[in-house]
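Researcher: Last one for today. Full complex below.
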Amino acid sequence: MARPEPVGQFEQLVLTAILTLYDEAYGVTIHSRVQELSQPKTVSLGAVYVTLDRLEDKGLVSSWLTEPTGERGGRAKRCYRLEALGERALEESAATAKRVWDSIVQVWGKEWAKRWGKGAKAWG
Amino acid sequence: MSGERRNAPPRFLEAIVEFLTPPVCREVVLGDLYERYRSPLRYISDAWYAIPCVVYSRIRRTADPGVLLMDAMLLYASFIGAAWQLDRDLLYQHSGLLRLAIPVAATLIALMLGDAYARDVERSGKRSPVRPLVQAILGVGFACFAQAAFVAAGFAFALPWWIMVLGGGFGVIAVSLVGMVFPPDDQRPRGAG
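Model: Here's the assembly. Have a good evening.
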């Protein structure tokens, strides 16, 4: 399989959101999930749109239009799914993040990691 | 997202958002904003941040840098040629070349927006053979309108109308020929934004 292009941090958040939403990954839900993942930063819907288009152009995700629904005023939604290349890009990102984390813990120690974990839960 | 009933956004607000959103992504964007609706203020805020991003994304997908560069060079050559014919002194003025570049920039902006706001050819099923000509006319027309606004405002960099007419005329021919020889790439995927 071709090697995916490197993905930025925001792209990683969007890919993760699509992965965790399964068949319900569309603009509104992806934005909500990205907002949860990027706390305490706020994220605009427009930024999610731009990133979804970029990911689709890179071949990391694909999309399809659903039937119109009443909760959307009789309009269709565009759902997204991860492609194989997108899954691989996310795996590589996770592996890089793990290496970064392990390197930091090696220097700052496990006590720091525990304190950091408690602080991260406070943000959540 | 949940099944609970919500108020709908005001129709006039939806109409404004519908007008501003490129047709290809209109249904999806309007649907998302409808689903997120809680109050008119929040709807306006959502649309305020979403629409420019959607337009930017469409421009990124539809603009062809090579074609735009050709358009820019041919347009600039048209206006320089018109100035050479009608008012050679303009070319030797301190800001002459800059003044000739302004309608070129305005035309390019109009062409990019025109492509971004074009309807989906796959859905309509056909591409009009005169579309490049119409787009070129609209693009140069926008540049002429901008120049007229500059003249009305007393802007020092406005070009004489005779140069606009001759340069714009040759520019329309050149840009429409480029558009016919290098049509837009319709195979690019269309997304929500």
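The interface with chain B takes residues 26-29, 32, 44-50, 52-54, 56-57, 62-63, 65, 68-69, 71-73, 75-78 of chain A (CB under 8 Å). Helices of chain A lie at 9-21, 27-37, 45-57, 84-123.
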